[in-house]
Amino acid sequence: MIKTKDLTKRYGRTTAVDAVDLEVREGDRYGLLGPNGSGKTTLVRMLLGLVFATRGEIEVLGVPVPKRVREVLPSIGAMVEGPGAYPNMSGRTNLALFDAAGPGSMRRDRRRRVDEALERVGLAGIDRRPVRAYSLGMRQRLGLAGALLRKPRLLILDEPTNGLDPRGIHEVRDLLTALNADGTTVFLSSHLLAEIEAFCSRVGVMDRGRLVVQDQLDLLRTPTGRVVVGTPMPDAAVALLDGRVEGRDGDLLTVRHADPGALNTSLVEAGVTVTSMVPERRTLEQVVLDATTGSSDRVEARA
Amino acid sequence: MIRVELAKLFRRPRTYVIAGLLCGLPLIVAIFLATTKIPPPPGQGGAFLSAVLSNGALYPAAAMALVLPVFLPVSVAVLAGDTVAGEAATGTLRYLLIRPVGRTRLLVAKLLSLIVFVLFAIGAVLVTSYITGLALFGATTSSAGVTLPPDVTSLSGVTISPAGLVLRLLGTVAYIVVSMLGVAAIALFLSTVTDSALGAAMGALAVLVTSQVLVTLDAAAAIRPYLPTRYWLAWIDFFREPVLWRDIERGAGIQLVYLVVLLGAAWANFLTKDVAN
Predict the structure, then answer these.
(1) Cβ A55 vs Cβ A7: under 8 Å
(2) B258 by DSSP, 3-state: which?
(3) Interface contact flag, A88 B11, Cβ < 8 Å
(4) Which of A103, B114, B172, B186 has a C-alpha 20 to 30 A away from that of A4?
């Protein structure tokens, strides 16, 4: 669906996006993770033909961008760096105006499509208040409705849950899951680990303009070779395992052991009761911390 | 897209506020003139002003002469400066472009809606000032037509027919639209350069003020014919008998050159611009 090769964007002497080879496949729930200022938004803007690349190639839905981007934009729904709306008009009018501005929108079913999109994002009941009076969360939902207006094949969402409360975030996640199940490819960027971890099947990690990790989430979260053991007899277990216990937190022990099954057997045979036994996996946070060098919004003193 | 632009233009209260302000100035002037009956001496003050006391039907022309030098260009500069930079500031520019609306198309729609605004504003001023003129000064129009005032025409007492007057008014409106398009082109170009609508409007006004100052400066006589505001008042020549085409043609020609160059620059700049806000 999206493929970039050696994609680079320079602003003067700063390199915002540096030789990125992005690949989003059909049906993916792709999460682009990275701290603020790591180049996510610039990358998204280049995919949509808003910002022109310094070097490299982009292909979206099989069409070269930005050369023929106008052919594919009608089948893409997008939200880039927060919603945008005319503050003096109502949300409904805003959606109708944007719909009327571009090609391929039927006038006669516009009203129905606007109502459907508003319904999907939980704004079915909005009245004629101007967008100026909307809360941040409502604007965010309105932006999402705008992206859904023409039933896109590909959704490109930059920080879609910004400004939403936990319930709102959950609703958006459910909505995106449902859309994805219906065949929409979802590409979202976020600086929130938890959001990506909860929703995405494939993850890319940006660090200072470079794409440092890109893989299936479950492949990234490899076992660490440790097992977390819960037992009401931690002292006995520590004495038995002698030196292989790497951490202890009340009744939970972190044990270096390759095989949880064998570990369980040896514990039980020695008379130690085991209440839980979980092979430890790398968290996404660990993956990101290993792959990135430092926070990009940190400004160190020069030596 | 042009329909959307027009919808945005006429849904915004500011369009009506600006038009109302433009209509208000001639109204205030008319009230002072009608109550004091002190006309500016012929040849001084605004064009036509000394003539309207005797003939209210000429007041629309006087009103044009009042709003044209400052008020109308300021409002055009403000609106034109807002076109691209304003969309960028509300975050709507990127959503229009990914809708997708072609960048050229967007600029053309913006320009057309500016023309519509100028026509709307001029129309409002003409209609209200005509009513004001008739109500406060009365009309001496007969079916024979309107007598041109002596301070404007070289031949006093020449009478033009109502049809002739309408033609001359249409010519005036067309000329003013072209002049204001020159202003719009400056502001539109700056609007594609900066993300600040206010900055673009200020830049355009700075150009106009500079031009106005240089027009009156004899030391700058060498460049005077090329200044954008040099021939702004040439539309008065439509009310001479016979119509004096020389300045009108030059004025329109200069505005066209400014239009082509600045719109070309705006287009080239916008087409290759990174939309990063």
Answers:
(1) yes
(2) helix
(3) yes
(4) A103
Instruction: Using CB atoms within 10 Å of the CB of residue B104, give its burial: 0 to 12 exposed, 13 to 18 middle, 19+ buried.
Output: exposed
Q: What is residue A156's predicted lDDT score, i.e. its pLDDT?
A: 96
Q: CA angle B191-B79-B223, nearest 5°?
A: 70
Residue A125 backbone phi and psi in degrees, to 5: -95, 10
What pLDDT, on the 0 to 100 scale, is given for residue B93? 95
Measured in angstroms, the CA of B236 and the nearest CA of chain A are apart by 40
The distance of B262 to chain A (nearest Cα, Å) reads 23
Residues A78-111: tens digit of each pLDDT: 999 889 999 999 999 999 999 999 887 778 889 9
Q: Do residue B94 and residue A80 have CB atoms under 8 angstroms apart?
A: yes
Write down the ipTM of this complex: 0.85
Q: Is the bond preceding residue A66 a cis peptide, omega within 30 degrees?
A: yes
d(CA B52, CA B149): 9
pLDDT at A119 > cutoff 70? yes
Q: Please give the backbone phi and psi of residue B46, each rounded to the nearest 5 degrees, phi first.
A: -65, 150
The span from the CA of A161 to the CA of A157, in Å, is: 9
Distance CA A111, CA A108 (A): 7
**Amino acid in position B154:** S
Q: In chain A, what are the domains?
A: 2-220 (3.40.50.300), 223-281 (3.30.70)
The helix or strand, by DSSP H or E, that contains position A169, with its residue range, turns out to be helix A166-181
Contact A260, A230 (CB under 8 A): no
Mean pLDDT score across all residues of chain A: 89
Beta bridge partners of A245: A255
Rg (CA), chain B: 20
Amino acid at A111: R
Instruction: Give the tens place of pLDDT for each residue, B107-139.
Output: 999 999 999 999 999 999 999 998 998 888 876
Q: Which amino acid is at B168?
A: R
Contacts of A65 in chain B (CB under 8 A): none
Residue carrying structure tokens 């002190």: B38
